[in-house]
Structures are given as structure tokens and as C-alpha cells.
Design a protein that fits this description.
Number of strands: 23
Structural class: alpha+beta
Strand content: 15-25%
Number of helices: 20
Distance between the termini: 40 Å
Strand order of the largest sheet: 8-9-10-1-11-19-12
Helix content: 25-40%
Shape: globular
Length: 553
């Protein structure tokens, strides 16, 4: 298709310099269509507008998340892990996130394509610096308890999460970014977020990416597990801890009414009973399918496996203040011993992407793809060990817990480092013992000399960059302290412009390859399994599952 410059000129009118620079990047070929759509949605440009720009620039329209054209009225049954704690949206850290979003909603939705879509917010815009973001709220939205959702509810909901006194799980996102009291009501349907520092990716921090950030009534009393009071397309029917939950269609929903009449969630402690229940017709969907478990279902004609590209990964940290790992040559040697192609092809059965020892997965628009990719090189790894004065070998312990394929990953690493003279002892703890109190000095995760930890998907790398790698990061298990890195991470996080983000990302990627405090071996796909005939269920790589458009035959 040819470019329509007259249409482009008309569309560019009244846009900000930042928005027009992004449009120019698409027209000139510096920015791909996919990255244009993702970053444009981040800046608050509507998908219809982005579609018109795409057509005028000679590309097609923006893909939409289409709803299944099916009759309403079904009951959709889901097998899922049991939440490990009380369902308080302020605190919930794990499988409970799936329960939160059945009845409650976010300001915006990070879809399976990393494109931000409006939810309770209709639009959002940054100021010139990116340290104030203004969100326009949807009108006429009601909580299940009857009150209208307004700015006071948004202010109270995010204040609750940003308040250190509440020990919110969302502080990993908001610490150093947004303080209690910095969310300000402009009018009943407009809210401003005044940030501690500029943040070019901020809308993701209040999207479904931050799974604690559901909007609750301003007078929320901590009783979510009893009421499930939200604005979503389903209302609570019954919740029984450790057993399951059921929900019914919200006939007063502000948007398109849900197709299912009911949804049921059955809690399990292991994956194998979930597989048997799906094959036996007792459930319709498995909400989280580990890659190794997918192999046995791949050839079952009655099962469909849905795969989403994801930035979920397992970080293999090496404590930079530990004698064994103080020399970065040792850390690089271990990274060079790992065969990433075998990890993806064998361990993941092709359901993932190779990592390059930084949080910048290849699916991020800001990742610099020109940075050379680290490959296995046993010869070079041995040379680095000799140069570091440990050519005769090392004895090291790796501490982790058994989750998904992490045990098998640890065993593969054990075999590979043996080739460069490292004797690796594997120390498997149960999950609770591994994480401990999740603070330095009280957590094997954060205190062990070498450890393997899971990290859930994020639509942008900010949390990975800040929490797990900056000098003061609350998840910095590698105890990595590097002023150059800290400055680069701050610059990346502050940048509003995609090309500026990519330039800084390249510098971060190169620095982390040199220092290698943490090995990012791969990013694994998010999988769910459905019975044949089930359509319209929309998973996200954050392990959420939106069922309003689901049906079955």
C-alpha cells in the first residue's frame, strides 16, 4: 500500500511533538508497525487513531480482540492453583490474582499483544516530562454494591497500594515511583498521578500488569474475600478457601454483557489432577499449563493448547559480594557454559525464546536487537576461569524451589558448569522456606550465594530493571551495585520516546553482558489448555483469564 501524506498531515494536527515523532518513526521505517501500535497505546493514543495512521502510512488496520459470536448462557469451568493466602487485593502475591480480576477491573488492560487497551480509564496522557500522567475515567460505571466508580475510588485504591504501612505486594512497582498522596482528583472523572520521577511506561504500572491494582470502593474495609465488590462483568456467587469459587453474570455491567451465565473455578494443588479433569470433561480450561505437562496433551484431539509469548522467566543470580562470584569473569564463564538453544528446544519444547542475560526480552519494543547474543562457548568459559585464578575449579551451592521446570533447569546448569570445573550442589527448599520473609537477611531467595527464582510476565521491563538489579532494589538477590547501571536504568525508565528507550536499552544490555550479575537463560511462553469447542477465553501472560467472551459448544 502507498502512503497517503495528505491524510497523515491531517492526522498529525494537534498531536504533541512526542506523538508526531512516533508517527514519523513509523512513516520513515525506524519503528515497526507492531512497535508503533504498542508504544502508541502506551502514550494514550486510541486504537482507532493508531489504525488510521497505519492505513495512511501504508499498513493495515490495528488487530482487535474479537469476541466469539456464540450463544450466551454457558457455565465455564476452570481448573487453577489454589490461592495461598487470604484474598486481600493489597497483599495477594500469587494464584489469588486470578480471583481478583473475575469481579474487579483495572484502569487499563495489558493484552496478549502487549498493547494497552482502555478499561476503567478511557484515555491517558503524560506531561512533557513524563512525571505527571492524567487519566480520564469512564462514566456510568457501578460497583456491584451499587455506588458509581469515580475519582475518589481510584485515588483511594492506588493510595492503599502505595502506602508502605500496608506492606502491599504492589510496592515492588510503586516504591520510588509513586507515593501515597501523590494521586490527585481533578474532578469526578479525572485523576492525576504525580510521580517521584519521570516514567515513560507508567500506564503499565496501573494496568493489569500490576495485578494488585484493581479499583475498589473508596470505603473498602479489607473484606474482599467476603464481598468481591468490583466493577467487572461477573459477581460473586460463592467462594470457599482451598476449594473453589463461582461467579454469575453481572446484568448491570457497564460494557458488553458476559456470554457465560456462570463461571466456576476449582482449586488444585498439582497439575496432574487438572489434566485428568480436563480430559475427563470435569473442567473446560486449565488456567496455567507448565510446558513439560503440555507434551502429553499436544496430540489429544479433544484438547486445544493456547500459547502466548511472554516475558516470564527464571533469574539465576550470583551474589556479586560473595567471594566465589566477586570477579565478573567467573560470572561470565558460568553464563557462557549454558546452552540456551537446548534450553528452548529441549527443556521448553520450543515454547519460549532465548534470553541474553538482561531483562530485555526480544518481544519488548525497546529491546536493541543489534546487541550480540551470547552463545555457549565452553573454551572461552574455561579461559575466563583460568584468568580469574580459579581454573582448578570451585564448589558452589545453588538454592531454589520446585516450580514449573525450575528443578530440571537447575540440573542442566549443574551439568554444564561441571564442564568448566565447577561442582554445583543443588539445594531444593519448599516455596515458603525459599522465600522466607522476602527481605534481605531473612530469605534464602535474597541471601543465597547463587539462586534460581521465577519472575512473572510484565508488559514493560521496568520492574525487572529496578527491583532486581538496581543497587537499592528490593529484589536484588545478586547484590549487584553499579552506579553506571543505576543511572542507565533511571534514564530508560524516564524516557517517553521509543527510540530513546531503545538507545538506552542497548547500553544496559551491553553492560549486563559484561557484568553478568544474573543469567536470563530464556523467557517461557504462557500456556493454557481448553477443551475442544471452548472459544473466546482471553488469557494474559500475567496468568489472568478473562472469560466475559467465552463460550462452548
Amino acid at each position: 500500500m502507498s502512503k497517503d501524506y495528505r491524510a497523515l498531515d491531517l492526522l498529525r494536527r494537534n498531536r504533541t511533538p512526542l506523538e508526531n515523532h512516533l508517527i514519523d518513526g513509523l512513516v520513515d521505517g525506524r519503528v515497526s508497525r507492531r512497535d508503533f501500535i504498542r508504544h502508541g497505546s502506551l502514550l494514550g493514543l486510541s486504537l482507532p487513531f493508531l489504525g488510521r495512521i497505519g492505513v495512511a502510512a501504508g499498513f493495515g488496520t490495528v488487530p482487535t480482540l474479537a469476541r466469539a459470536q456464540s450463544a450466551p448462557g454457558a457455565t465455564i469451568r476452570v481448573a487453577c492453583p489454589a490461592p495461598s493466602t487470604v484474598l486481600d487485593p493489597v497483599l495477594v502475591p500469587d494464584a489469588g490474582l486470578l480471583m481478583l480480576q473475575q469481579t474487579a477491573e483495572f484502569l487499563c488492560l495489558d493484552g496478549p499483544d502487549l498493547v494497552l487497551r482502555p478499561m476503567l480509564a478511557e484515555s491517558w496522557t503524560p506531561n512533557d516530562k513524563g512525571d505527571v500522567w492524567t487519566f480520564k475515567l469512564r462514566k456510568g460505571v457501578k460497583f456491584h454494591s451499587g455506588g458509581e466508580m469515580k475519582a475518589d475510588d481510584v485515588v483511594a485504591s492506588i493510595d492503599r497500594l502505595a502506602d508502605p504501612a500496608n506492606s502491599s505486594n504492589a510496592l515492588s512497582v510503586f516504591r520510588g515511583l509513586l507515593q501515597k498522596g501523590a494521586i490527585r482528583k481533578v474532578d469526578d472523572h479525572t485523576v492525576e498521578f504525580h510521580l517521584d520521577a519521570p516514567n515513560g511506561n507508567f500506564p503499565y504500572m496501573v494496568s493489569s500488569d500490576n495485578y494488585n491494582a484493581i479499583i475498589l470502593p473508596a470505603n473498602y474495609k479489607g473484606d474482599f474475600e467476603t464481598t468481591f465488590d468490583g466493577t467487572g462483568p461477573f459477581k460473586l456467587e460463592r467462594y470457599t478457601p482451598k476449594v473453589g469459587a463461582s461467579f454469575v453474570r453481572n446484568e448491570d455491567y457497564w460494557g458488553e454483557k458476559a456470554l457465560p451465565e456462570r463461571t466456576e473455578f476449582i482449586f488444585y494443588t498439582d497439575i496432574q489432577p487438572q489434566i485428568l479433569a480436563l480430559q475427563g470433561g470435569q473442567v473446560d480450561i486449565i488456567s496455567l499449563l507448565p510446558v513439560p505437562s503440555s507434551v502429553g496433551l499436544a496430540n489429544d484431539p479433544n484438547i486445544e493448547i493456547v500459547s502466548l509469548k511472554s516475558t516470564s522467566h527464571h533469574q539465576l543470580h550470583m551474589r556479586c559480594d560473595n567471594k566465589a562470584f566477586r570477579d565478573p569473569r567467573v560470572r561470565r564463564a558460568i553464563a557462557l557454559s549454558i546452552d540456551r538453544k537446548k534450553l528452548v528446544a529441549g527443556l521448553l519444547r520450543g515454547q519460549g525464546l532465548e534470553g541474553n542475560d538482561s531483562p530485555f526480552a526480544s518481544i519488548y519494543p525497546s529491546t536493541d536487537s543489534a546487541v550480540p547474543h551470547r552463545e555457549q562457548d565452553i573454551g572461552q568459559a574455561r579461559q575466563l576461569m583460568e584468568a580469574a585464578g580459579v581454573g582448578s575449579g570451585l564448589k558452589i551451592a545453588l538454592t531454589t524451589h520446585r516450580y514449573l521446570e525450575m528443578a530440571e533447569y537447575a540440573q542442566l546448569v549443574q551439568g554444564w558448569v561441571r564442564e568448566i570445573g565447577i561442582e554445583l550442589e543443588l539445594n531444593f527448599l519448599d516455596k515458603a522456606a525459599f522465600y522466607g520473609d522476602a527481605v534481605f537477611g531473612k530469605s534464602p531467595w535474597l541471601d543465597s550465594p547463587m539462586g534460581l527464582t521465577e519472575y512473572s510476565h510484565r508488559g514493560v521491563p521496568n520492574v525487572f530493571l529496578a527491583a532486581s538489579l538496581t543497587s537499592e532494589g528490593s529484589w536484588n538477590a545478586a547484590h549487584f551495585k553499579n552506579k553506571d547501571y543505576d543511572q542507565l536504568a533511571s534514564s530508560y525508565i524516564a524516557a517517553l520516546d521509543l527510540e530513546a528507550q531503545k538507545a538506552t536499552a542497548g547500553k544496559i544490555q551491553k553492560l549486563l553482558l559484561e557484568e553478568t550479575p544474573t543469567i536470563f537463560g530464556y523467557f517461557y511462553d504462557h500456556l493454557i489448555a481448553t477443551a475442544k469447542g471452548v472459544t473466546g477465553a482471553q488469557p494474559t501472560a500475567m496468568s489472568q483469564l478473562f472469560l466475559a467472551g467465552a463460550s462452548k459448544t
